[in-house]
Amino acid sequence: MIAAFSPDGATLVYGNTNARAFTAEVWDLAHQRITDRAHLPPGPGDSSGIHALACDRKSHTLQLTGMSQDGTAPRVESLTTWDVSRDVITASTPGISGFALAVGPTGRLLVTAQGNVADLTAGSPIVRANGTGPAAALAFSSDGRSLAVGGYTGQTALWDGDVRHNLGTLTLTHQGSSGAVSALAFSADGSILAVGTRNGAIYLWDTATRQPIGSPLTTPGGLVAALEITKDTLYVAGSNIPFQRYDLTTTAAIAAICRRATHGLTLNDWKTHFPDYAHQPSCG
Fold first, then answer.
1. How far is CA 80 from the centre of its chain?
2. What is the pLDDT of residues 233-277, one digit of tens each?
3. Rounded to whole angstroms, how far apart are CA atoms 55 and 5?
4. Which residues, listed in sequence order, are joined to residue 134 by a DSSP beta bridge?
5. pLDDT of 104-147, one tens digit each?
6. How many other C-beta atoms lie within 10 A of the C-beta of residue 143?
7. What is the arrangement of strands in the sheet containing 224-230, beginning at the earlier edge strand?
8. How far apart are CA 142 and CA 122, in angstroms?
């Protein structure tokens, strides 16, 4: 399965790459229902040749990487621009590839896991000479000022929104945190970055201090395919993970820790899990 949230966080688009014919389904998060379903137009290929997808703000246009889907032969690695509202392929650009994609909030820039950076404003993507280098996962902040580039060793690099300057690297130090990054998402104000991994763990980062926030969030396991942070809620979708929500409020975090603890949080416990908040009685 491949999946991606729209830039505004309102919808989740996903499809089964193991199916013979690729179908994209659009899931409305607020109303918890499928609002659209589109099928790739008939061609020589099948969904096994699709690697990744990204969508625009209204989920009307999808960008797909993988083998070309426009009916031409021979098939080559390409970026396919698909208008799902009309079931029409509007562009096929050879040479743009990668198993992850990200489109900026304005729809101007597209970045791929192979390090390609393309301008989408002309209709057909125009590839820029310089890029980010190989990546396992990508995500723009909602204001377009930052790009997160997840690596195969668990590290995540931060770039400026125009993808010209590397601003630093987030390096995990937790034991067993070597899983490759598989999904990324910024909070609305860009202050928090959620990092999902192939082994199912999810890490939260403070982007200002570049320090991890609390302990990793656990899932039922399997690759984390897509993440989205809306207000105080983290949405998660994955190949073996049911679509689920995590409450990120301090109250919910305290309750979760108390369920695992046999006593109230000491001052040292509090400083470990909530370093930016004043100590208060807990687990009472």
1. 19
2. 999 988 777 778 888 876 666 666 666 666 666 777 767 766 666
3. 7
4. none
5. 888 888 899 888 888 888 767 788 767 788 899 999 998 999 99
6. 13
7. 224-230, 233-238, 244-247
8. 22
